[in-house]
Write a structure and sequence with these properties.
The protein is an all-alpha fold. 82% of the residues lie in helices and 0% in strands. The chain has a single domain, classed as Amino acid/polyamine transporter I (Up-down Bundle), CATH 1.20.1740.10. α2 runs antiparallel to α10 and α8 packs antiparallel against α15. Bound molecules: phenylalanine (PHE).
């Protein structure tokens, strides 16, 4: 099995693409959605701690798994741990396809809202906004959004690692930061800004720290937002040279991702508070922000329309730099494992995901279930297995890859130690709490 001769143009290109994969709708929409389900400051604190203490070492491990094997997600676990690790490769594939299926539906909603704000305008009131959301989130409208988003993702991935994915991230990521910074400053001057920060981000209630739903939301948000656990970063790291310093690169990815998550919260929550939409968002469903934000922005006229265009535009850029990494998981696996040509692999996977995307396109209930299962449970499980593989089954591979790129000995041991004794047990607890919480919600 020979790896196709693809590579990043530089370590910086890899970091941008990896940050592009991490920063996505999860930061903009997922963070707001989960934070508003309750938990306030406790949710934010748990999320940041899990990201830094639990996910960061797993992210390094996932990068090592890709780079040290130079294989795609389907094959890399076998190369590192032997045949009995083959199910992990399959888990990566199933989870990536499942996430992409509902992610592309959300992209469709985002794209349609963007086009409407740009070409037509914003809905006049809540009822009009709900009617518009109904139109784009059900039936033919939703399927069209899904197909267009998948097609765009396919075009980028078909253009290759350097010519497609890296090129997109090189202009997309800086554009996204500039737009977000502009919106952040604008939102800080809204009349209700202080109340918004307070209501969702700063409200402190220590008891929330132990609530299963807060814990599940924090774990899910951390893993989904960093995007570690399903082989997307692994696929990218397989195209990386031996010299790039992985711990520092993982830290930049995590830093950018967390910053964007918090910044996005500091845009959406003041908006929600200053337009008096707090109650609407607290009973949050996946669609709430798509309804609440345009309605609120409509009330301030042309400026609001401009902000809507910028916000949904930046969301679409963030989303496509993530969806390409999800598609790269099965595509690189077909290329690497079965010797397919990239283009064939891309369009076959796109066709498959278009079918898998029908249930979430046609029912938001199905979308929420897929989000919880693929984007929550399977992703966290994948993270746990990556941590186990590199800390207990193949620690020598982990250490020698890090040595090869010049990581100081103390940092290497510290990373291995935290992978073994912090990440593994913490993820095991987080996963159990999440599964029980979901079971209670669905069956209990
Ligand atoms: N991290 C992306 C987001 O926040 C989604 C994603 C999940 C990407 C898993 C890759 C792997 O939107």
């Amino acid at each position: 099995m020979a790896r196709a001769s693809e590579s990043w143009s530089s370590s910086f290109g890899f970091v941008l693409a990896a940050a592009g994969s991490a920063v996505g709708l999860g930061n903009l929409w997922g963070f707001a959605y989960r934070a508003s389900q309750g938990g306030g400051g406790a949710f934010v604190l748990l999320y940041v701690v899990i990201v830094l203490v639990v996910c960061l070492p797993v992210l390094v491990a996932e990068m090592v798994l890709g780079r040290s094997t130079s294989h795609a997600p389907l094959i890399a676990p076998i190369t590192a741990g032997g045949r009995r690790w083959a199910p992990l490769g399959l888990l990566f594939l199933v989870a990536a396809l499942g996430i992409l299926a509902f992610y592309a539906v959300l992209m469709g909603w985002t794209g349609r809202t963007l086009l409407h704000a740009l070409l037509v305008g914003l809905p006049a009131d809540m009822a009009a906004s709900e009617a518009f959301f109904g139109l784009i989130s059900s039936g033919g409208g939703a399927v069209l959004g899904l197909l267009v988003s998948l097609a765009l993702t396919g075009v980028v991935v078909a253009a290759g690692v350097r010519g497609g994915i890296e090129r997109l991230s090189r202009w997309g990521m800086p554009a996204l930061f500039v737009l977000l910074l502009g919106l952040l400053i604008w939102a800080a001057f809204l009349p209700g800004a202080g109340a918004g920060y307070h209501q969702f981000l700063l409200r402190w209630d220590a008891a929330k720290l132990l609530e299963p739903t807060t814990i599940r939301n924090a774990f899910t948000q951390a893993f989904f937002s960093i995007g570690t656990g399903i082989g997307a970063i692994l696929a990218y790291a397989a195209y990386l040279n031996r010299r790039s310093g992985l711990p520092a690169e993982a830290l930049s990815v995590v830093g950018m991702d967390t910053a964007v998550g918090l910044m996005a919260g500091c845009v959406t929550f003041p908006l929600v508070a200053s337009f008096g939409l707090g109650d609407v968002v607290s009973g949050s469903t996946v669609g709430t922000l798509f309804i609440a934000l345009p309605t609120g922005l409509a009330s301030i006229g042309l400026a609001g329309r401009l902000v809507a265009v910028l916000f949904f535009g930046l969301a679409y850029i963030a989303a496509i730099t993530s969806s390409v990494s999800l598609l790269e998981v099965p595509v690189s696996s077909l290329v690497d494992g079965l010797g397919w040509r990239r283009r064939e692999a891309v369009w076959t996977c796109v066709a498959l995901v278009a079918v898998l995307g029908l249930p979430p396109a046609l029912s938001t209930g199905a979308l929420e279930v897929m989000d919880a299962l693929f984007g929550g449970v399977l992703l966290i499980l994948g993270g746990l297995l990556i941590a186990l593989l590199l800390s207990w089954q193949a620690p020598a591979r982990f250490l020698s890859d890090l040595q090869g790129c010049g990581t100081p000995p103390a940092l290497r041991s510290a990373l291995l130690f935290s992978l073994r004794w912090i990440s593994v047990p913490a993820i095991a607890v987080g996963l159990s709490v999440s599964v029980l919480d979901l079971a209670k919600m669905w069956f209990g």
